[in-house]
């Protein structure tokens, strides 16, 4: 039987308060209306809601899934509808958005904490609010006042959901190849025609209306990304009084049958089969790609978060299984007795690896979100630029590293179950199947790695990355001063050295040998990402070491929790971090051997 979900509220609180500095963030003018205890109160409540209301729907999503009907509608599982209705009532979807449209104005990092728990509870269902969030952001930044006032309030509550329509059969990673067309109708609106594929929640029965954001080409626009514009195309047109009017010319012609996330409908949408779907321009003509980038950072962060969230749920289940399942005799056990498998060192290694990476991912993702918040809260231009740069450079790590790890760690969680892991009834297989997509959509991880060694590495000629490494170097020195963290500190110094060498190598070849740089991209993302995770875990370990028993006081449970954080960070620093240093060879090998064989020889 699949286990239930326990929201890791204490772990989340630890990262928020002691690693990413939520209290300091809430002391800024921008977020001064929110206090730490209010945030944790909301998160406690949200955690209970996700565990009690959303988590029990996860198996329905997998077994029943969303179903396409011959009348071009899509039916989600009954339990999804009930849970989503309650989710709308809670108002959780509005927490980080502008109070002018009904939002809470909370920092993004608090929404990330909420989203982590929602995604652990049911990844397939969580995609509906995730896509809505992206559409809200694009509309908030670039939509006209009229569009904002018409659509945002009900999108913030979740009564209306959102979609992002980029992909077409010939335009996947290559978004510039989009062919969907938009013609001016002469009354300020546009008529959209074309076909989009793979559109998440493109049609469903959870929300009253669906607000599609569609990338399309206007007449005479140049080829490639420069000729793309963004349009808002609602499923139902909205009357002047805000009520829903006629059905727009958008049809869901089919949905995909997939490896995982069966509850999330992945739709083929046909726009304009009759007179053209009615749409409105968001932002300027031919500014579609630029505007899309506004919401890309947070969308990529949210997809990276899926890696953490599903790994967390799979880990909880693996741990419960390891305590219950008895096999073999652990060292020191009397003959004739069977030990719980958690007593075998190799099972311990699998569990500790999951645990340490989960702690590391949470630090990275929350730090990334907090950097977005700090940039928004900065009143000084230099400081804002510094946080913007940090947020930007962490995005490909958050998305690429965390979704790769989502795959690796759910596989380990399945392995802990032995043969039962391979049997669907146990539930471990669902997590493994569900998370597979996260490394593919929202820019494949190959595209994330290319972004890191391209756009991100070139920021101040590697300066943003070197600054990060210098900062972590100071933490490594501090680790070396604590006896039980000394080896972690030395390993961190070594790994920072390897990351510096790798960064320098890539900076030097950026202009002269682009193939060498692109060949290094994926191992470089892994090396730099692992170093950043180690640097943030160093901060966590140092916070515990410096505090002694201060925060825990007489609370033995809290003291044990804090001690476990230090051990988890040390395990990462001593047993995971050194493996990343070995990637330097692949990073500096150049491209020759990758291209030495012909396609026939491959
Ligand atoms: C379940 C699901 C939900 C989705 N939801 C949405 C959605 O809501 N909206 C939407 O618009 N799209 C959505 N997508 C589409 C998704 O974003 C694309 O599948 C993804 O961008 C990859 O495009 P592709 O499938 O055409 O693969 P391709 O672009 O053909 O890529 C194939 C392989 O080649 C690699 N590759 C391609 N180009 C390069 C390059 N320049 N450099 C290095 N490597 C490269 C890729 O990394 C990948 O490994 C969804 C897809 C799925 C499966």
Write the layout of secondary structure elements.
Elements: H1 9-19, H2 22-25, H3 36-54, H4 58-63, E1 67-68, E2 74-75, H5 78-90, H6 108-121, H7 123-142, H8 145-157, E3 160-165, E4 181-184, E5 190-200, E6 209-217, E7 228-234, E8 236-238, E9 244-247, E10 250-255, E11 266-271, E12 277-282, H9 288-324, H10 345-377, H11 381-416, H12 428-435, H13 445-456, H14 463-480, H15 486-509, H16 514-519, H17 521-547, H18 556-581, H19 584-587
Helix pairs in contact: 1-10, 3-6, 6-7, 6-9, 6-10, 7-8, 7-9, 9-10, 9-11, 9-12, 10-11, 10-17, 10-18, 11-12, 11-13, 11-17, 13-17, 14-15, 14-17, 15-17, 15-18, 17-18
Search tags:
602 residues; alpha+beta; eight-stranded mixed beta sheet; two-stranded antiparallel ribbon; 55% helix; globular; binds flavin-adenine dinucleotide
Largest sheet: 8 strands, mixed
> Distance between the terminal alpha carbons, to the nearest Å?
43 Å
What radius of gyration results from the CA coordinates?
A: 24 Å
Q: Which of globular, elongated, flat, extended, rod-shaped describes the shape?
A: globular
Mean pLDDT: 96
Percentage of residues in strands: 5-15%
Residues in helices, as a percent range: 40-55%
Structural class assignment: alpha+beta
The number of strands is 12
Which ranges are low-confidence, i.e. pLDDT below 50, for 5 or more consecutive residues? none
* Structure ligands: flavin-adenine dinucleotide
| Contiguous helical run count | 19
Tell me about this structure.
- The protein is an alpha+beta fold and 602 residues long.
- The protein has 19 helices and 12 strands.
- Strands 3, 4, 5, 6, 7, 10, 11 and 12 form an 8-stranded mixed beta sheet that branches. Strands 1-2 form a two-stranded antiparallel ribbon. It has a two-stranded antiparallel ribbon with strand order 8-9.
- A hairpin with a 5-residue loop joins strand 4 and strand 5 (190-200).
- The longest helix is centred in the middle third of the chain and has 37 residues, at 288-324.
- It starts with 8 loop residues before the first helix and ends in a 15-residue tail after the last helix.
- 51% of the residues are buried.
- The model has no long low-confidence stretch (mean pLDDT 96).
- The structure holds flavin-adenine dinucleotide.
- Flavin-adenine dinucleotide binds at residues 164-167, 172-173, 198-200, 258, 266, 437, 440-441, 444, 446-447, 450.
């Amino acid at each position: 039987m699949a286990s239930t979900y326990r929201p890791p509220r204490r772990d989340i609180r630890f990262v928020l308060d002691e690693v990413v500095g939520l209290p300091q963030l809430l002391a800024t003018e921008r977020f001064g209306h929110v206090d730490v205890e209010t945030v944790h109160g909301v998160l406690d409540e949200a955690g209970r809601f996700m565990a009690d209301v959303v988590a029990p729907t996860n198996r329905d999503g997998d077994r029943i899934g969303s179903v396409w009907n011959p009348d071009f509608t899509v039916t989600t599982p009954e339990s999804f509808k009930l849970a989503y209705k309650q989710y709308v009532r809670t108002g959780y979807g509005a927490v980080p958005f502008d109070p002018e449209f009904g939002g809470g104005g909370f920092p993004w990092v608090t929404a990330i904490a909420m989203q982590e728990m929602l995604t652990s509870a049911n990844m397939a269902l969580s995609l509906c609010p995730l896509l809505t969030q992206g559409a809200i952001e694009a509309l908030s930044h670039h939509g006209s006042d009229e569009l904002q006032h018409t659509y945002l309030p009900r999108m913030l509550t979740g009564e209306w959901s959102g979609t992002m329509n980029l992909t077409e059969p010939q335009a996947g990673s290559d978004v510039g190849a989009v062919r969907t067309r938009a013609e001016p109708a002469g009354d300020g609106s546009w008529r959209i025609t074309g076909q989009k594929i793979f559109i998440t929640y493109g049609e469903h029965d959870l929300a009253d209306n669906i607000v599609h954001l569609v990338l399309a080409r206007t007449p005479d626009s140049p080829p490639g990304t420069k000729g793309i514009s963004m349009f808002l195309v609602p499923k139902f047109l909205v009357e002047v009084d805000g009520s829903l009017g006629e059905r727009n010319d958008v049809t869901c012609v089919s949905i995909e049958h997939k490896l995982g996330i069966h509850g999330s409908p992945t739709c083929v949408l046909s726009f304009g089969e009759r007179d053209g779907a009615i749409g409105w321009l968001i932002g300027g003509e031919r500014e579609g790609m630029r505007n899309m980038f506004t919401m890309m950072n947070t969308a990529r962060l949210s997809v990276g978060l899926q890696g953490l969230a599903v790994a967390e749920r799979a880990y909880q289940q693996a741990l419960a299984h390891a305590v219950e399942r008895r096999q073999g005799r652990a060292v020191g056990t009397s003959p004739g007795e069977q030990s719980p498998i958690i007593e075998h060192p190799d099972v311990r290694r699998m569990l500790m690896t999951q645990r340490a990476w989960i702690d590391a991912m949470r630090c990275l993702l929350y730090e990334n979100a907090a950097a977005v918040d700090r940039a928004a809260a900065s009143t000084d231009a230099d400081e804002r630029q510094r946080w913007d740069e940090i947020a930007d450079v962490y995005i490909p790590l958050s998305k690429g590293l965390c979704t790769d790890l989502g795959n690796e760690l759910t596989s380990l969680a399945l392995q802990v179950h032995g043969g039962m892991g391979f049997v669907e009834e146990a539930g471990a297989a669902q997590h493994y199947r569900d998370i597979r997509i996260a490394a593919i959509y929202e820019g494949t991880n190959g595209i994330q790695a290319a972004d890191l060694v391209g756009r991100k590495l070139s920021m101040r000629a590697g300066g943003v990355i070197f600054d990060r490494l210098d900062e972590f170097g100071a933490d490594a020195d501090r680790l070396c001063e604590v006896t039980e963290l000394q080896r972690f500190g030395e390993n961190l110094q070594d790994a920072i050295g390897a990351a510096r060498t790798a960064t320098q190598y890539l900076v030097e070849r950026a202009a002269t040998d682009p193939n060498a740089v692109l060949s290094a991209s994926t191992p470089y993302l892994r090396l730099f990402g692992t170093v950043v995770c180690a640097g943030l875990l160093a901060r966590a370990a140092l916070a515990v070491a410096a505090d002694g028993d201060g925060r825990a006081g007489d609370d033995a449970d809290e003291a044990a929790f804090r001690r476990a954080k230090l051990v988890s960070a040390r395990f990462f620093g001593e047993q995971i971090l050194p493996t990343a240093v070995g990637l330097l060879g692949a990073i500096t090998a150049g491209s020759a051997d990758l291209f030495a064989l012909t396609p026939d020889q491959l």
